[in-house]
User: What shape does this take?
Amino acid sequence: MSRPPESQAAMDQLLSTLNLEKLEENLFRGLSPQVGWQRVFGGQVIAQALMAAQRTVEKDRYVHSLHAYFMRPGDPSVPIVYQVERIRDGSSFATRWIVAIQHGRPIFSMSASFQLEEQGLDHQVAMPPVTQPDKLMGEKEFKELFLAQAPAVVRKYWNQDRPIEVRPVSLVHYLTKDKLEPRQDIWVRAVGEVPADRHYQACVLAYLSDMTLLDTSLYPHGTSIFDPKLQVASLDHAMWFHRPCTLDDWLLYTQDSPSSSGARGMTRGSLYTRSGTLIASVAQEGLIRKRADE
Assistant: This one.
C-alpha cells in the first residue's frame, strides 16, 4: 500500500532508532528521538532490545516469543546500552537474554527465543467482526473534532508525528467518563514504508504492540492514562509471533483486560491482518496507582 511522501519521516526516524551502533561483541547502543517526553516509550526499548538480540543470531532464525520487564523509566536524553547474553544456540532454537542499561543501572530486561522456520500443525481463532478502517474517522478528522477542548497532555500526545497511525473502532471513551467494558478494537498501520526484512518487521510490530494497552485496563474505571491523578506505567510485556507480516496494510489490534487489582492492570491483545490472519499475541501488566498527593 502506497504512502504519501510526507508520512515517511516519522517511520524513517523509527528505523533510525532501530539501527543500533555495535560497540563490541554482544554490546549495542541505541538513541531515542527527541520529542519532548520525560520517559522513553516502552515500545521503543522492546524494539531496540529485539534488534540487538537479532544481531547475535543466525539470519535464518526468527523471533517467536519475547518476555520483558520494565524496571526503571528510560531517559530519552542519553543513549541506551543493550547487553546481549547468548544463552543457547540449538539446532532449531536460539535463546538470548538482553539487559538495557542507562546511568550505570539496568532499566529493562528481556528474554527472546528464535526458531528456524519449519512446518507444523496450524490453527487460529477467528478475527472478530468489526468496522473496516476505511469507514472510520482518520486521525486528521479526530484532531479537528476532539483536540481543541482536550487537556494539554492529550493534545501534545496526538499532535506528535508518529510512525504508527491509530484508528479506534469506537470513540466512546473519548466522549464520556462512564465506566465501560474492558475491551477495545483498534486498527493500526505503519505510516511509512517498512523494509522488506523480517527482522525489521518484527521490531516495528513489537514497537506498536505497546500502544494503547494500558488504556484498556482503565475503561471499567471511567478514566485514562492521561488522568493527572494516576501514575501509570508498563511493568512487563510478553509477545508471541505466530506468522510473518509485511506491515503494508492495516492491522486490527483487539484488546481485553481480564483483571485489575493490587494497583496493577492486565491486558491481552491479538494482532490480525485485514484479511483475518492472526500474526501475534500480546500480554501486558501495568502499574495503575493513585498519586500520593491525591
Summary: The chain has a mean pLDDT of 90. Residues 229 and 293 are 8 Å apart (CA to CA).
